[in-house]
Structures are given as structure tokens and as C-alpha cells.
Amino acid sequence: MADKQPPAGDNRPKLALHVPEPKYRPGDAVDYSDIDIGEPGSMSRPDETCSPDTMRDHAYGLVRVLGDDDNAAGPWDPRLSPDTLRTMMRNFAMVRAFDERMFRGQRQGKTSFYMKCTGEEATSVAAAMALAADDMVFPSYRQQGILIARGYPLVEMINQIYSNKGDKLKGRQLPIMYSSREHSFFSISGNLATQTPQAVGWAMASAIKGDSRIAATWVGEGSTAEGDFHSACTFAAVYNAPVILNVINNQWAISSFSGFAGAERTTFAARALGYGLAGLRVDGNDALACYAAQQWAANRARANGGPTLIEYFTYRAEGHSTSDDPSGYRSAQEREEWPLGDPVMRLKKHLIALGEWDEERQEAMDRECAELVKAATKEAEKNGILGHGLHHPFRTMFQDVYEDIPWHLEEQAAQAKHEREVKWPGEEPWS
Ligand SMILES: Cc1ncc(C[n+]2csc(CCOP(=O)(O)OP(=O)(O)O)c2C)c(N)n1
Ligand SMILES: [Mg+2]
């Protein structure tokens, strides 16, 4: 008979947990010199059909193309034409102009909510430009750059933000949670990470149907702590789904820093290794690197080479949303000190270094984009703004969910109508 386990002695060390704490809080001086950003152009570019287990360096290092000298270097340089680079620059300018105006609109009470993507433009604009227009995208709420790159009308975006009578979603979605089947843009969900298994499922269905379209999803680094993300990775790996999982590591999840999602322990791209996915870690403020990584993953998926998880290492330069005030939890110096700069400035300087652009043209483009956004705003305002009553009729909230309204919704609708008649006697209860 085995000896009994001896009783616990009191000389054993006390157990303790580690609770992550961000390095810098408001007022702190920021020093990012410990972040290893590697050298532009130094990362190898494996063949798109390579085995994921050969990609360890790509999951821990950083794919970079644009250097401090504003030139493109190394095997990841996508060698885009100056015209394509200028189109990218214009998409950037449009996203910035749009964000500025919508942010102000929220402060003026025209909408209840808005979210900027300042500093992260490359992760959506450049990535979207590397995909085919009919590849299905499952974004999060900070990828307005995809819609702009795909030519979605600004007026439609603003109608949605204002939840007015022109809003194609009939006010049923929170402002900025767009949806457009015509632009292969899946409805944005406020429930974090739900889009990741949906993208994998869509990609699997595309393959089952013998289609050629792939899927791509975007998710914040904080949201990768959700179970949905891990189910998505498992399904993607098991079935070799033609999907790209884009993780936007912008360092913050509202006021929680990336450490709470695991950033102190490893990189987000390194998650790929455990699942047997191809993993790439990319300078998210380098538009050329973002484009090249997305293109690599798209080529791989299209050739039935399997899924790729891409981490974009970037920084959320502004607040989480119009409801947030980051000065309460992080040092204002972080933005200035971010070692990878600003994606828009970097692309601009690259185009200038190529002799294909200048400050005058940039200023003219910025002005033109601001004017176009202003005109679209005026147009959308004719359909109403928050609180002006020009929304879709109240009754529409019960429609379109089922082909025929089921009895329990009929009952709720009748109750709602009655309550409105009591509250606002004499008024049309359904308007
Ligand atoms: C399931 C779920 N939990 C919490 C929230 C509240 N919430 C909305 S955004 C957010 C932060 C997400 O951060 P991250 O994934 O890093 O994306 P980022 O906002 O930085 O782009 C949280 C906690 C939510 N919408 N859904
Ligand atoms: Mg984040």
C-alpha cells in the first residue's frame, strides 16, 4: 500500500496572483525604449504555402517595410504603384475628415455616439485594399476605413449614425454599427468577438459551396480574451478555413490595457502557434506592411493554404469612443512617444520621398475630403438628426425580424402602441 500523503507543512510559500498594471498612468513620463520594433525590411517573407510551424519569428517579431528614411525596404514591400499609394492616401484623408466631423457632430448633439479610429487607419484601409471587393468582411466597430475604401456612400454612413429616416438599418443598430450586403460588409455587432466565429463559419460555407471568396474579420486585442475568439481559431485551424483573423492590438480596451488580454506574457500573433494557424505580427502603423500581410494571408487562403492570424501592433491615439475620457487612466505622452509614429504621416512622407507627392497636393486633398464630408453631412441632415423626430416609424421595430410577425411580437406591439397612446394622447402612436 502506498504511503499516505504527508500533511501540508507551514514552510510552503504562500500562493499569490499577478494582477496586471499598465506601466504608465496620467502624468507619468513615458519611455517606450524597451519595445523591440526590429529593423524595417529585416523580416523574411515565407512562401504563402509554408507550414505554420516555420513561422515562429513572424509571430514574435514585427513585419516592417517603411523605414525612418521614408523608403520601403525588404521582401514584404508590396511594390504598389504611385496611383495605388495615392488612392490609399486619399482613403486615409477621407477617414480622418469623416472622424473629425462625426466626432464634432456628437458633441453638437446630432448623434448619441461615435468612435474614431485615429492612428489605426492603416489596419483597415490598407488591409481592405489588399482584399478583393467581394471578399466578405466581418469587422469590429473601428473599421470605418473598410467602408470608405470600398466606396460606401458617406451619406449612408451618416444616415446610420444619425439613426434618421434615411438610415437603411431603420435605427435598429447603435450609431456606427453599419451593415452593407452590397459591399460584402457584415453587420457590426456590439457584442465583442462574435464576428470571429461568424467569419470562420462564412469562410467554411464558402468552401463547402465551392465558391472562391474568402472571409476576413477584425477584432480588438482586448476582445481576444473572449471565448468566441478561441472557438474561431479552433474551427479555422481544424477545417483549414479560407479566413483571415485580424487582431488590432491598439494597446487599450477602453480603460483596460492589453496586459489583461495576455500581452505581458506573449504576443497576440503567437496565439496562432498554439492553434496551428499561420501567424504574422505587423507594424500596424506601416500601411505597406499592413497591405503586404493582408495580401499574403489572402493569397494563402485563396490557394487553400489555410487561415492566418495577423496581429497589428498599433496605438489607439484617441479615446475609446465619444463616451470615454482617456486622460483619466493613461498618460497623454503615450501617443506622442509611440515608437511607430502615425500611419498617415508615414505614408505621406513615403510618397513625397518617391517624388510622387507634395505638401500642396496633400493640403488640397485634405480640404477636398473635408468639403465632401461636409456636403454629405448636410445631405444626411435633411433626413434628420438625433431627437428631431425624423426617424423611421416606431412600428418598424417589430418588422423584418421574422417573415411574418409572430403572435408574441404582435402582443408586444399592441402593448407598446397602447402605452404610447396613454403617454402622448392625441398623437399618432405609431409614428
Ligand atoms: C461581450 C462584451 N463585453 C464587453 C463589452 C463592452 N466593451 C465594448 S468595447 C470594449 C473594449 C474592447 O477593446 P478591444 O477589443 O481592445 O477593441 P478596441 O476598442 O481597442 O478597438 C468593451 C469592454 C461589449 N461590448 N461586449
Ligand atoms: Mg484595443
From TrEMBL:
Matching CDD domains: TPP_E1_PDC_ADC_BCADC
Question: Which InterPro entries does its entry note?
Answer: Alpha-ketoacid_DH_E1_comp, DH_E1, Oxoisoval_DH_suAlpha_N_dom, THDP-binding
GO MF entries: branched-chain 2-oxo acid dehydrogenase activity
Q: Which cofactor does it need?
A: thiamine diphosphate
Q: Which reaction does it catalyse?
A: N(6)-[(R)-lipoyl]-L-lysyl-[protein] + 3-methyl-2-oxobutanoate + H(+) = N(6)-[(R)-S(8)-2-methylpropanoyldihydrolipoyl]-L-lysyl-[protein] + CO2
Q: Where is the Dehydrogenase E1 component domain?
A: 92-385
Q: Where is this region: Disordered?
A: 1-52
Q: In its UniProt record, which GO terms are filed under biological process?
A: branched-chain amino acid catabolic process
As recorded in UniProt, its EC number(s) are 1.2.4.4
The entry's keywords: Oxidoreductase, Thiamine pyrophosphate
Taking the record's annotation, the residue ranges forming a coiled coil are none
Instruction: Work out whether the entry's keyword set contains Oxidoreductase.
Output: yes
Which stretches make up the 2-oxoisovalerate dehydrogenase E1 alpha subunit N-terminal domain?
13-53
User: What Pfam families would the database entry show?
Assistant: E1_dh, OxoDH_E1alpha_N
Query: Is ATP-binding found in the keyword set?
Result: no
EC class, as a word, reads oxidoreductase
- Tell me the protein family, please: Belongs to the BCKDHA family.
Task: Relate the protein's function as given in its record.
Answer: The branched-chain alpha-keto dehydrogenase complex catalyzes the overall conversion of alpha-keto acids to acyl-CoA and CO(2). It contains multiple copies of three enzymatic components: branched-chain alpha-keto acid decarboxylase (E1), lipoamide acyltransferase (E2) and lipoamide dehydrogenase (E3).
- Report the PANTHER family cross-referenced here: 2-OXOISOVALERATE DEHYDROGENASE SUBUNIT ALPHA, MITOCHONDRIAL
In Swiss-Prot or TrEMBL terms, this protein is called 2-oxoisovalerate dehydrogenase subunit alpha
